[in-house]
Amino acid sequence: MAVKTVAGMIAHVQAQVGQAYLYGEIGRVITPAIIAEKHRQYPDMTDAGRAQRALTTHVGKRGYDCSHLISSYWTQETPAGAPKYSAKYDVNAQGLYDLCGRRGRVGEIPEEPGLLVFMYGERRGEKRMTHVGLCVGGGVVVEARGFDYGVVRTKLKDRPWTHCGCDLKWFGTPPAPSALPPSEEGGLAVGDRVRILAGAARYFPGGVKIPDWLRKEEILLAQVARKDGRAEIKGGRRCVLLGRTTGGNDINSWIDAELIERA
Fold it and tell me: Topology of 6-171 in CATH?
């Protein structure tokens, strides 16, 4: 894969202006089959009416939602290339915000090309970042705005952006283990029983909310150590792979090693 840069990301996203918005879509050329797929997966976001309209307005265009427009820079080798799905880059707006090395409210970080801007609100009963766009310079944002708009250029000042962030960790190499602060994962092993700490909110990486029921479960660790005996490095943090609860439910999600404790 070619070296990724802020300038390259801006050029990639600018090249998608005019493409379509389809919730959950990662940049594939839209077909009737893809529209039917998204209707089945997300009937609240692509209901029957939208699915019918999309047959006349979306087919033949590339489809993105707001976060996949940004992450498509990593999953498409060229702006017109077919995307290659990767779980690493399958994150929502909150996940992108979590990956920003510098984060704050709009205005706290100078508006500059490559700055991600976010809207904070409530989605499905959860308060989080619900939308994301990319500043491309001159006060202009490129965003996959929604079903009725597609990928468009908008003025930063004209939209209700609340937060911003930059220096995506995807651009850099995660710090070496010796550069990270001390952690408490030492001595953990595959098969150990652990619990998620009460204050933990999300899996890492990816930004997915930890369900309340899981906090009451004992979990068997599926993966802990590399050859050097430390936990895997994911996005600059030591992480372990949760495996299965003692009740038999599969988890298979990475989590910061500091967000668990022995059961």
Answer: endopeptidase fold (from Nostoc punctiforme) (3.90.1720)
